[in-house]
């Protein structure tokens, strides 16, 4: 293979690649329909010209045929009059027009065939143009849908690694963290509230216990002494006041000391 052939092939391959990349389906289809319509115009002009030529040939054929018939009649008339020379001349003219008519008949038959062929081609081209327009609209819609689908797929593909999706993920994580902190704070607040109520309740118990201690440890009335454990209930009838014996005082002190120990253990 020669150098120039290789260079030519490389150039043609690059040009074809550039053309393929530059081809837009919608524009190419539109241009194809325009080209077909231009061909249709030229074909219609050719059909019109062929029909006009056929009409002229028909007229010439009819004229030649008429002239041939006329000279035939004149030859017969001259022969009837006994003028053979005139009859022979008339027959020569008749033959000339008959030959012309024959030639025109052959040409006319060819023109008729040509016109019929052109008409069929015209009808076929019109049908192809109509079909091409329909297909053009369909292919244009398919091309637009394919472009939209490709753009959508590219957009969806880019969303996986884009900063927008990363921002959504970060914000979702932050919201989850805030929800967890809020839930923990609510639980802690509930625990603190319960502990505060517990402290209040325990404070009331301590105050009541201190009051009971103060009441029990106060120097005694018969009522207080009656509340000491192990002592006999006071008599309903009044008794004369007498001084407590040392032995009785020791018993009372021992009981009070025992009660204090029991209270301290509460």
From TrEMBL:
Regions of compositional bias (Polar residues) in chain numbering: 221-250
Pfam families attached to this UniProt entry: PspA_IM30 (PF04012)
Residue ranges that the Swiss-Prot or TrEMBL entry lists as coiled coil: 26-74, 115-149
This protein's UniProt keywords: Coiled coil
Span list, region Disordered: 215-251
Recorded superkingdom: Bacteria
InterPro entries: PspA_VIPP1
Membership in a protein family: Belongs to the PspA/Vipp/IM30 family.
Protein name: PspA/IM30 family protein
Organism: Phormidesmis priestleyi ULC007
């Amino acid at each position: 293979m020669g150098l120039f052939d290789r260079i030519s092939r490389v150039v043609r391959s690059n040009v074809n690649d550039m053309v393929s990349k530059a081809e837009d389906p919608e524009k190419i289809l539109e241009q194809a329909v325009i080209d077909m319509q231009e061909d249709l115009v030229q074909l219609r002009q050719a059909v019109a010209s062929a029909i006009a030529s056929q009409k002229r040939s028909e007229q010439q054929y009819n004229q030649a045929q008429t002239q041939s018939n006329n000279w035939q009649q004149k030859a017969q008339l001259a022969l009837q009059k006994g003028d053979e020379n005139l009859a022979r001349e008339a027959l020569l003219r008749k033959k000339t027009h008959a030959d012309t008519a024959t030639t025109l008949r052959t040409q006319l038959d060819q023109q008729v065939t040509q016109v019929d062929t052109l008409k069929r081609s015209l009808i076929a081209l019109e049908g192809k143009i109509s079909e091409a327009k329909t297909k053009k609209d369909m292919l244009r819609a398919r091309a637009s849908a394919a472009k939209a689908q490709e753009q959508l797929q590219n957009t969806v593909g880019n969303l996986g690694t884009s900063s927008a999706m990363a921002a959504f993920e970060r914000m979702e994580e932050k919201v989850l963290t805030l929800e967890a902190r809020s839930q923990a704070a609510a639980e802690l607040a509930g625990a603190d509230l319960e502990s505060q109520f517990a402290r209040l309740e325990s404070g009331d118990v301590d105050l009541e216990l201190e009051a009971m201690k103060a009441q029990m440890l106060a120097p005694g009335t018969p009522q207080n002494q009656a509340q000491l454990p192990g002592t006999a209930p006071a008599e309903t009838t009044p008794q004369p006041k007498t001084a407590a014996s040392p032995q009785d005082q020791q018993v009372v002190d021992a009981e009070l000391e025992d009660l204090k120990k029991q209270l301290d253990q509460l």
